[in-house]
Amino acid sequence: MPDGGPGVSVYLHYPYCKSKCTYCSFTKFLVPADGIQHSRLEDALLTDLEASLSLHVDDLVPAGSDDHSAAQDAIVPPGEPLRRRIHSVYFGGGTPSLARPEMVARVLQRVQDLGMTPSQLEVTLEANPTSVEASKLRAFKAAGINRLSLGVQSLDPDALRFLGRDHSAKEALEAIETALDVFDNVSLDFIWGRPGQTVAAWERELQQVTALGASHLSLYQLTVERGTPLFKQVQKHPQLMPGEDEIADLFEATRHVASLGGYEQYEVSSFYGVESSTFKMFSNGASLDSLLAPKSDELRELERCGLLTVEMDAEGIITAVLLAIAGKDFVLTASDDTSARSIVVMKRGEDKSVELTKHSLMLYSGESGDTVQFAEYIQRNVRLYGIRHSIELSPNAVASFTRREMAESLRSRNPYHVNVLIAGVSPKTGVPELYWIDYISNMCKLNFAAHGYASYFCLSTMDRYWRDDLTVEEAKALMRKCLEELRTRFVGNLPNFFVKVVDANGIHTTEL
Ligand SMILES: C[S@@+](CC[C@H](N)C(=O)[O-])C[C@H]1O[C@@H](n2cnc3c(N)ncnc32)[C@H](O)[C@@H]1O
Ligand code: SF4
């Protein structure tokens, strides 16, 4: 039951599976020969739920309140009963679709009794795509499930056999069809990076997947987990698994085909369907174009972003100057070197940027403690991912991860007050990429960008002179124009800037 900020997310683990897959290290037991003792298991899960919830004293709110987001520190009259805020429920496994739908209804009833839930409580069930389980989906929906996560893993019969799955590709496709018929919100799990898998075969398989129209895809790289049959097999035959280069190619293919199929990546393995009704609800009716800043309307989007930034009254977040311009095959960045508290200059010489990968640079501004902590946190995690998987994340993946972490922080009690630019070039294609992210986790991919008051002074200049074939020297000339504008019109005195170029060779400091 992880604490995701104000309120808890309830996770119930259903520990039985009909068979054990060769790669899986999750806690699971084979269904006993005499069947699952449903009532005993359900009683145990409910006891566990109550005990776990009772530990979450931090998330208590007055029972009388009808507002799920009621202030946590509201004064509670003595004797008033308290309930916990619960923002989602997830039945994971093992194979929770082996459970009785009555179990779901019992658990959700107890959640309502003990907790305070939003009107649209998200309730997810993981399911295996066998025909027996597909036949129960309507009953699960009636019991309160509104999101289904189907573990398909592959549509290739040989791969399903290798992975030890107990369903055929045909059965999986039928289960997906039923799931899409029953639920508005369906997520599909697939595993890539399988032995012998070619890029062309995976592209074909994934094209078939994206055409199905699920609202979400989880596309996991096959991980060789210690203690699994796959682990033993790979120990005996280390050449079985694809090498680093093949994995990098498969990952790029995953992102490319998912994107062409209408899916936007927001985490390393997670993609949402941008046309899905669930995403439209999530984005509050805003079109994808307005979220991702279409080139044709870039300045309007930038102005919208700039206004959002200035609305925040936080130390250093509006006076700091972060600028970036994407050119032909590079991104040029500039950040002022002034460390200020309110209107007082504390020191000069502060570099407000950090290298995330060889080809991705993050510029940051905001509350002084937050900026360094956030930048280090992102840097460490991106590096760790690189070391674990022996690949360099693309600027797009780095930006998606940063945005997600910002969104997570926003839901916590101590959100980071940090604005960010991520400048980079794709390590594979050398194409420059620039992302604007603000402290409330709006993200836009742009050709030029600014944070803080600087946006008022520099964006129109950038808009007027920017071209997609700018050379480094031309981009520097444009950056000089922007800084002249700032020095002439901005009341703050910002004498020095750190200027950097990110290109295919890495990140270099330069002079304007
Ligand atoms: C806990 S499993 C349970 C889902 C369900 N029992 C099933 O098998 O469809 C959740 C997902 O984790 C992914 N997964 C589990 N082990 C994995 C591994 N070793 N490598 C990559 N993905 C894995 C699979 O895609 C799976 O669908
Ligand atoms: S992947 Fe799913 S079905 Fe297979 S063993 Fe793991 S939990 Fe069970």
UniProtKB/TrEMBL annotation:
GO terms for cellular component: proteasome complex. Pfam families: Proteasome, Radical_SAM. Residues 2-264 form the Radical SAM core domain. It comes from the Eukaryota. Keywords: Cytoplasm, Hydrolase, Nucleus, Proteasome. The keyword Cytoplasm applies. GO terms for molecular function: hydrolase activity. InterPro entries: Coproporphyrinogen-III_oxidase, Elp3/MiaA/NifB-like_rSAM, Ntn_hydrolases_N, Proteasome_beta2, Proteasome_bsu_CS, Proteasome_sua/b, Proteasome_suB-type, rSAM. It is found in: Nucleus. Its EC number is 3.4.25.1. Its main location: nucleus. PANTHER family: COPROPORPHYRINIGEN III OXIDASE (PTHR13932), RADICAL S-ADENOSYL METHIONINE DOMAIN-CONTAINING PROTEIN 1, MITOCHONDRIAL (PTHR13932:SF5). This is Proteasome subunit beta type-4. The lineage of its organism: Eukaryota, Fungi, Fungi incertae sedis, Chytridiomycota, Chytridiomycota incertae sedis. The gene is PRE1.
